[in-house]
Structure formats: structure tokens, C-alpha cells
């Protein structure tokens, strides 16, 4: 029997078994006869299956010549943009896995790339100390942003309205005007490399992660650091807002994922399971599920409320360096030092 089918059958049997235990408990409480329990178990198990997405590998894309550092879906979910140590930014069809186009211009490793909120542009950051803005339709470079002899550009993110870009380099966070390409503001406070930056859903705050083991929360208008979240025991590589902006999920070199309350700055939960560095974390659109990737070559899916691991995906042969979830939550895309992009659904 095919291994994948065998696993799925076993999984369905486990779900039915758990459903039977739960239902029998209910019925004992209600003093109802159990004569019809077996048929009812199957009905409930099928009902439960509708709400538990079981991800499997759909596509493997092999095209980049070096480690792939990031992958992101387009706002409509139809495309994926990737960045790599081969100095290119490439775009793919998320359904077929086929190559669509690429952007050349960076003169060093490209660390991050993502689509603008309207999907018409792509930004990328690089070891060459620049951020570049690309037109998706024409493939033309629209802007090149840099600040003198500033350090490598590690992380980038568009504001929700697409008018501003936030970037992270060494100890600094910078805000850039998309239309002019000019630097608007520099936020200082971290004592080591800033590895991740993201706007909140309302665009009013920014969350940052850094190798100084902290997570920062910043007010966009004032540029002030509102909160400093401490709890990780090693460098923090990623931090992301929940869709409603009330929580932050972070991943670290300490192999843990942590959930934080945005209002209080308090740590709410610690998720353990990865063996080494957690390189990426993303929320699903419903805000109840989190996906993470690690240098242990696994992708793990978690219940954000209970902290329990729901599913583990294995397929990469190298460290997994980036992860994203499609806007409708039906697909996951991952990238790795094994030079592949993998699409799960």
C-alpha cells in the first residue's frame, strides 16, 4: 500500500477512535443507549475532517542555484515570489509551480522579497545593502533604496496601504517612502542584527525581532519603542502579528515558538517541538493556527490557543529557511538550503 494512503487511513482511524471516546462520554452523561454509536462515530469523524486540513506535498520547484532565503504568496494567492543567494528574485505560479519571471539587479545574496498589497510590485532586500522595488508587469526596477554605507538589508515589509516600506539591517530599523524612495525615519533600540520586521494589520505599529534575544514593538508615528518582549534564550529570527493584531508569534535559535500579548507585552505560551533554530512563523488567516519552519528540516503546524502540534511536514533535505501561508489558508509554501521550493496543500 502507498505510504501516504496508509498514513491517511491510520489518521482517519485515530480520528474516529477519538470521536468514539468523546461521544461515548457524552452519551453516558445523557444516559442514552449506545446501539447506534458506531454509525454516529463515522458521521462525526467526517464532520471533524472538514475542519482539520491535512497538508501534503503538492509541488517541488527546482530552479534556484543556491540557498533560497524567503518565499511569499501574492495577495491573490496565485503567485509566489522567492529570493535566493544566487542573487535573483523569482516569481512562480502557485498552482502549477511553473516559472513566471525573475528580477535581476542585486549584486549579492537576496535575503527577502514580497509583493505589494495590490500585487503590482515586488520589493527585495540584499547583501548589496539595497532595497529594490520592481514592477511585476514590466519587470523593470522602479526604485533602488540605500543609505550610504549602511549594512546589509536583512528584512523588509510593506505597510498595509503600500505607501511605506520598513527594513531591518544591523541594529537599525528604517522606514522608506515607496514613491520617492527616500528614507523617512530610523528607529534605534536593538543592540544586535534586526532579523525580522512587520507592520501590524492596522499599520500603526511595527514588530521587530533581533539577535539581541528581544522582540520590539514600535509606534510608527512617533518612532518610539512601545514595548520590549523578553523570554527567548537566544537570537530571535522571526516575529509576526496575528491577523487581528492582538498577538505576536516569534521563533528563535532556542528552538521555541512563543506567543505574546500585544497590549501587555506578556508571554502567553511557549511551543516546544523543533530540535534547533526556528527560522519562520506565520499565522493562518483565521488566527487559530500557526505554521513554523526550522533548521531541523521540518514544518510544524500548531494550535495557537492550546500550543499543541497538529501536524508535521517533512520533505526538505536541508534547513528550511522560509515559510508562508496562502491568503485563503489552503496552501503552505516553504523554501530551503536544499535549493527547492515546496508547495503543500
TrEMBL record:
It is found in: Nucleus speckle. GO terms for biological process: mRNA splicing, via spliceosome. It holds the Pfam family WD40. The keyword Repeat applies. Keywords: Repeat, WD repeat. InterPro entries: SMU1 (IPR045184), WD40/YVTN_repeat-like_dom_sf (IPR015943), WD40_PAC1 (IPR020472), WD40_repeat_CS (IPR019775), WD40_repeat_dom_sf (IPR036322), WD40_rpt (IPR001680). The keyword ATP-binding does not apply. Coiled coil: none annotated. SUPFAM superfamilies: WD40 repeat-like (SSF50978). WD repeats lie at residues 61-102, 103-144, 187-228, 229-270, 271-312, 313-345. GO terms for cellular component: nuclear speck. Its main location: nucleus. This is WD40 repeat-containing protein SMU1. The lineage of its organism: Eukaryota, Sar, Rhizaria, Retaria, Foraminifera.
Amino acid at each position: 500500500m502507498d505510504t501516504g494512503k496508509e498514513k491517511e487511513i491510520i489518521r482517519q482511524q485515530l480520528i474516529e477512535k477519538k470521536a468514539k471516546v468523546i461521544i461515548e462520554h457524552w452519551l453516558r452523561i445523557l444516559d442514552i443507549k449506545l446501539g447506534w454509536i458506531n454509525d454516529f462515530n463515522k458521521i462525526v469523524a467526517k464532520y471533524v475532517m472538514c475542519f482539520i486540513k491535512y497538508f501534503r506535498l503538492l509541488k517541488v520547484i527546482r530552479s534556484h542555484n543556491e540557498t533560497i532565503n524567503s518565499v511569499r504568496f501574492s495577495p491573490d494567492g496565485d503567485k509566489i515570489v522567492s529570493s535566493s543567494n544566487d542573487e535573483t528574485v523569482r516569481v512562480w505560479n502557485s498552482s502549477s509551480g511553473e516559472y513566471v519571471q525573475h528580477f535581476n539587479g542585486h549584486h549579492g545574496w537576496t535575503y527577502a522579497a514580497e509583493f505589494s498589497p495590490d500585487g503590482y510590485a515586488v520589493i527585495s532586500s540584499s547583501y548589496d545593502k539595497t532595497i529594490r522595488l520592481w514592477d511585476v508587469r514590466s519587470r523593470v526596477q522602479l526604485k533602488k533604496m540605500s543609505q550610504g554605507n549602511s549594512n546589509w538589508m536583512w528584512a523588509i515589509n510593506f505597510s498595509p496601504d503600500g505607501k511605506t516600506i520598513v527594513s531591518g539591517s544591523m541594529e537599525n530599523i528604517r522606514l522608506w517612502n515607496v514613491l520617492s524612495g527616500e528614507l523617512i525615519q530610523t528607529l534605534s533600540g536593538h543592540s544586535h542584527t534586526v532579523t525580522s520586521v512587520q507592520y501590524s494589520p492596522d499599520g500603526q505599529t511595527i514588530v521587530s525581532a533581533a539577535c539581541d534575544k528581544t522582540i520590539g514593538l514600535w509606534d510608527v508615528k512617533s518612532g518610539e519603542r512601545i514595548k520590549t518582549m523578553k523570554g527567548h534564550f537566544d537570537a530571535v529570527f522571526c516575529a509576526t502579528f496575528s491577523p487581528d493584531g492582538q498577538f505576536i508569534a516569534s521563533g528563535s535559535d532556542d528552538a521555541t515558538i512563543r506567543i505574546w500579548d500585544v497590549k501587555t507585552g506578556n508571554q502567553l505560551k511557549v511551543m516546544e517541538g523543533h530540535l534547533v533554530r526556528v527560522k519562520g512563523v506565520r499565522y493562518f488567516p483565521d488566527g487559530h493556527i500557526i505554521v513554523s519552519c526550522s533548521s531541523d528540516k521540518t514544518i510544524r503546524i500548531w494550535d495557537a490557543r492550546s500550543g499543541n502540534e497538529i501536524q508535521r511536514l517533512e520533505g526538505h533535505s536541508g534547513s528550511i529557511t522560509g515559510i508562508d501561508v496562502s491568503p485563503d489558508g489552503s496552501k503552505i509554501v516553504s523554501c530551503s538550503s536544499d535549493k527547492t521550493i515546496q508547495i503543500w496543500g
